[in-house]
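Dock adenosine monophosphate; give full complex structure.
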Amino acid sequence: MTDKVSAKIVILLGPPGAGKGTQAALVSKSLGIPHISTGDIMRAAIKENSELGIKVKKYLDDGVLVPDALVTDVIKERISRQDCDKGFLLDGFPRTGEQALQLNTLLAKMGCGAAKVVDISVPEQVLIDRIKKRGEQGSGRSDDNAEMAAKRLQVYRNETAPLTDFYKKAGNLREVDGLGTVEQVNERILSAIS
Ligand code: AMP
């Protein structure tokens, strides 16, 4: 296996509606590394009606998390592809303590250095308004409506928010203010990981 100690590995954390997807696309482009979104991978699988898609559809429709083993397998396969040799950006993974531990193990096995973890923080009411707007503008996502927004935020608070402490303790966390224009937030992220 190639030694990836100098690979650029970025993890974007942040609640639904924080602008993770938009920022992930911009940051991965700036750094020249693939943008890996577990949500996008699973939505594509559902569209294709693949084996993975059939297994995960009910979770996405309900706004709850897909079981750790399933999503970890998806990531394991994706980050072992050659286009990830120089690094990659993870958007929407890890989302639980178990996924974070599994990722650490995978990165260690691949000979990668520590990931740079960015937490995009945005006040809750702003998040709810943004998700509702996204649904009204026809995002095409079955989970972009007020009820689902509240549920996905609850899941985030319970399962994913504790990861910020996990990465803070490991000394890998960079906190970035997610309020402002797309360009402003993007500049903050780029300087936080430079
Ligand atoms: P996202 O596009 O990142 O908001 O993800 C949409 C949905 O996909 C989530 O509500 C979950 O059902 C599922 N999902 C995405 N990433 C993960 C993950 N890392 N662990 C479990 N479920 C996930």
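Observed: Residues 16, 38-39, 42, 59-60, 63-66, 71, 92-93, 95, 99, 143, 152 surround adenosine monophosphate (CB under 6 Å).
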